[in-house]
What does this fold into?
Amino acid sequence: MSVPPATLPPGTFPSSVFRFDSALVRTPARSVVHGLRADDRGDPSYDGVVREHDAYVAALRAAGVEVTVLPPLEAFPDSLFVEDPALVFAEGAILLHPGAAPRAGEVAEIAPVLREMFGTVLELPSAAHAEGGDVLLTPKGVMIGLSARTDRVGAEALLACLGQLGRTGTIVETPAGVLHFKTDCSLLDEDSVLSTRRLARSGVFDGFRQILVPDGEEAAANALRVNDVVLVAAGFPKTIAMLDGLGYRVVPVETTEIGRIDAGLSCMSLRWRHAASWSPGKA
Ligand code: CIR
It folds into this structure.
């Protein structure tokens, strides 16, 4: 792996939380057709997932991110969703423990990769469960949503790890029946979040400018701000038009097949801004 270790001292993290120069993704395995899902709307097609994944990687690269592509893991159908078994920051990485039992082994697969890339790699204790899909990075701190995948022990252990990296966080609730906290929201800029009405109603985003996805397009809430653009699932024209009208540079990305296994746009990458490309005052 050619990426040098991140060396930012704790507490001196970059001011922007959506400026990235590096990302890690994993090629979909053929077994992706057996990926976990809450409601069965039919298996995704392998070719379709590969096409959507390729387009996603291309969109990250076009946004100015250097993408490292890991090999597929046939034993783990959901392993292309690298966001869930780990968290990464310029200051270091944290190995998580997925609450979904079939995904637990993904951590041991990604651990050596992260140990090669990051100088500091922390780990949750074994009794703790947390998935990256429940973690939203904001300029006000890291929000950790409790869900069926992230329990309180996991969220508290994660807060402790974040503290070791010089970061702060808060524990919040995910609406009942929603897979992950970020299934229902994403950060659009330093002040603004895109959210479903049901999540915003909880008051969790008080203090942010809250932009609500139009009714019927709830699945569009899992967008992804990367540098100057916002990746938005292509199947949600009202959300795309709304964000476009608000001045965001929207890049539509097809998610029809990965959507069949409950995935959106944040879950297919781990993103960070390398310490070497950051200096104080640089956004
Ligand atoms: C799962 O249920 O774990 C996968 N089928 C989907 C994971 C999506 N992850 C994410 O949004 N962070």
